[in-house]
Amino acid sequence: MYQDFESxxxxxxxxxxxxxAAVAALPDLHGVRLACNMHLDLKMAPLVAGLLDKGAxxxxxxxxxxxxxxxxxxxxxxxxxxxxxxxxxxxxxxSESFDRALAWQPTHLCEMGADLTTRLHQSPSGxxxxxxxxxxxxxxxxxxxxxxxxxxxxxxxLPVKEGLHNRHMVxxxxxxxxxxxxxxxxxxxxxxxxGYGLVGQGTAAAARAYGGQVMVAEIDPARALQARYDGWxxxxxxxxxxxxxxxxxxxxxxxxxxxxxxxxxxxxxxILNVGHVAEEIDVGFxxxxxxxxxxxxxxxxxxxxKTVYLLANGSMFNLTAGYGDSLNAFDVTxxxxxxxxxxxVGAGARQTPGLYLLPQSAWQPAL
Length: 367
Fold this sequence. Notes:
- It is built from 16 helices and 15 strands.
- By secondary structure, it is α/β, with parallel strands linked by helices.
- Helix 9 links the parallel strand 7 and strand 8.
């Protein structure tokens, strides 16, 4: 298994040249204690290994226990990283990982979801953080209610991340994962995409490209108008549920698909989530019903006389049941992350506390 991972890592590193160059451009990182709360899959390994080679001390936690690859974590621990993360860790263990990361006394944070920053700001004491990075829209939403004690740089809203990863990769890889998981296509299926942010836009476009008949539900009037101008059938969520063969949530908000909605769904509907937040679907309601797993990552719930298929238990589908972004596309994302780390240990560390967009001067050289 270890040798297999070495081969996979070599393959990933070969196809991520921007990341290699961005890591090589980083300064000496001795003295930097970086706590990373992020997806821990194969694509992250080249970056973390490079940071260790530059002298950084690393503590790894995960932003989603369902996306952890245990062999990745084990290999990075062999390389010198500390970690408290494994696939399908319990909610209590996951919460404990944040406390352990902060007790490790990091100097810098690199996050996807702002769990460490939120936990830190719930206490009047804690480690003295110099600067941090945040990579997700849901994390930025959480930080909007926080008065940061240090500068935090948002790179989710950068055009290269929004326009590439959010708009194109998430939806594309979600449907690839749907095909491999269910052995079905979207032909002759009515697909309901909930949310028309950039992730929703890409999810809808890819569904249509693969033969789906697509509807969009969006509560924001401006985004709903944009969806109409893009040519989509914009529908009311409550009334459209019963028409859908496949439902994809792409909002980053909690409880978007409630128990009441689920009761309106038709027999045989497939439900998946591509947003960062695992609670977009009321999974608790479904778990109280009789269920079984006819295929890996496909849970069949008996709701009255109907069967509702929930994919990957409502977790981020493309990365829990699939491989997420392609290596070449994620190479851009990871190179920008590496450049962001260079910024928070350099010029960004001198910013006053607050939430900032990662400056163009920091990330553009990584392209």
